[in-house]
Amino acid sequence: MKVLVIGGGAREHALCRSLSLDPDVTALHCAPGNAGIAEVAELHPVDALDGAAVARLAGELAADLVVVGPEAPLVAGVADAVRAAGIPCFGPSREAALLEGSKAFAKDVMASAGVPTARSYVCATPEEIDRALDAFGAPYVVKDDGLAAGKGVVVTADAAQARAHALSCERVVIEEYLDGPEVSLFAITDGTTVLPLTPAQDFKRALDGDEGPNTGGMGAYSPLPWADPKLVDEVLASVLQPTVDELRRRGTPFTGLLYAGLAITGRGVRVIEFNARFGDPETQVVLARLRTPLAGPLLRAADGTLADQPPLRWHEDAAVTVVVASHNYPGTPRTGDPIEGLDEVAAEDAPYAYVLHAGTRREGDAVVSAGGRVLSVTATGKDLTQARERAYAAVARIRLDGAQHRTDIAREAAGE
Ligand code: AMP
Ligand code: GLY
């Protein structure tokens, strides 16, 4: 099977790494990719947001499957363009991707499907904003309606800050604060059958102890030793299946990866957000634990035969990933700095720990930073403690001027 992956972050590196290990994958391509993906896939300098160009490339490569990684191409309709060219595509249509592209749309789908989520108001005027902030009280949760790469959400006890963020958004969702640990649960779906993956936890704040601003995600781990073993079945029944059924009922079936961001509150599970693609960095740990070769389930989701997929198999091992970010991330990051130590990780830490590239590019013989999240060091071990040790040992070998990372990824879950 020839596979083309669209995107160029650590999530796409994780996808390409898994696909490159799948014996059914005979050729692996990626557009645009990054310096790390270049080691496992052939790169093509095609704009990920240009549906016609992606469909043309997939046709030229005679791809049997296109996997669209990030949300922006999905919301731009890239999966529609690929499918219109007759090529199976893992990734929802533009209309179904609105589940991520518009928080207000997601709330409407959840209301129709009876999916538990925070109570919320969609506001467009200062009066509506003030009314909603007063109705819920502190802590305030204020979300930009559109795509914001995980940075459009402000959670604060400060009413003035909440109001200022709300006023800066064109359309804003203000909602009830959900108290409790967060879980990311992904499911592969063909629009009818829903196949959940294994749960992971992400660390959204920039600094240790969950301090600092929200980011795209600074680290993740799986499994969740503290979670109820029935969690996956419960979320499948109360969240994932009803949402997929509702989108099919609306005539906009969702094909691809449905990401449920959940809060485990004292009153039960609530959806914090949906995403329409694999999460980053959770994918790094979920795929590190997946035993079943990846291409089969993705192709079956893309061609509508997911009901034929045998149950997924998982490694007992735990996995931890730690994101190394540029100076000043999540503000405007500094880029162009050389990254050293990558060879040492490959020589000393493989196969238990490895680097997945995000914002990197090759400059002559050097690999330099090219984005906010630069790379994601992923490690496996017999438990979270060992996976953490291996991940942080590898992080310590990476030298990037001004870089930052959290030191407490999975620490509490490991019982340390
Ligand atoms: P989102 O982009 O919707 O996932 O929000 C980013 C982060 O903001 C989430 O991972 C939560 O940590 C936090 N957050 C979002 N909505 C809520 C909520 N209703 N209650 C508490 N925290 C929230
Ligand atoms: N890790 C959060 C996200 O992918 O949106």
UniProtKB/TrEMBL annotation:
Keyword GTP-binding applies: no
Domain ATP-grasp: residue ranges: 107-303
Cofactor: Mg(2+); Mn(2+)
GO function terms (MF aspect): phosphoribosylamine-glycine ligase activity
A Pfam entry, by short name: GARS_A
Enzyme Commission designation: 6.3.4.13
Known pathway: Purine metabolism; IMP biosynthesis via de novo pathway; N(1)-(5-phospho-D-ribosyl)glycinamide from 5-phospho-alpha-D-ribose 1-diphosphate: step 2/2
SUPFAM superfamilies: Glutathione synthetase ATP-binding domain-like (SSF56059), PreATP-grasp domain (SSF52440), Rudiment single hybrid motif (SSF51246)
Reactions catalysed according to its record: 5-phospho-beta-D-ribosylamine + glycine + ATP = N(1)-(5-phospho-beta-D-ribosyl)glycinamide + ADP + phosphate + H(+)
Family statement drawn from the similarity comment of this UniProt entry: Belongs to the GARS family.
Name under which the protein is recorded: Phosphoribosylamine--glycine ligase
Organism of derivation: Streptomyces pyxinae
Name of the gene encoding the protein in the UniProt record: purD
